What we know:
41% of the residues lie in helices and 24% in strands.
Amino acid sequence: MIRIAVLLSGQLRDWKTASKIFKLWNEVDREVRYDFFLSTWDDSYRGIDSKDADLSMCTASEVIFYDDSIHKEIIRYTYLLKRTNIIKNRYEKEQGIKYNAVIATRPDVMIGPRVLQGLASNIKNKYLGHRTLFIQNGITEKLVEENKHSFFMNDFYVYGHSKVVNAFAEMYDDIMDGRLENRGHVTPATHIVNNRINNRSVTGFANPIRFTNVQLLEDTYNSGALKNMYTTSTQIEEFKIKYLVGLTQYDKERHNKE
């Protein structure tokens, strides 16, 4: 059996819905087992306290005190990623196991079936190297000033061998030591480039879960269509169109509030 560790690092946003999707991962392929490790803040989202959330689906989890000194978003994420990775490594050592791969993502991100199928295929075909990260759409290099380039990437997920994810999870230490700029999507991409980690672009549905998507997700889950989508990879395009409508609605509402 293939065993994959999933690092969920970040604020719990609509976790009641998001956790149902993560649970589905272990119901669609009997040859693959996902163990979930979570680190989140002792805060609240849309009136729901994280300390009251049902985290029973996780192999190990922690809800930690929010330190106001960790005020910038990317620092908050990298700190929780470091914590989640420590939990995973400790569990591996205690249980005497080695995961075939590790996914580093957030509790509020939906990763579609094609990404998971691609990961399983890469494991079976032994395409995961110790120094290669697989990243949604890869890393983009842009000229921001004369003779100055910056690197960018999406922050929805990366996956790879445990060793390379260990290196990726050292971002927080590099920021605090002044070796890495704290700048949104630039930070993880720059960290990967600076540490000479190879990266490969992968595609497939991956998007944040917003409150404007919750009803669609609940309806699709309750009807069994979501499980069928993960099992057969059908109806993805139709679902994607509806999902993107929800994301557009979220962006409009946020813009109007600003």
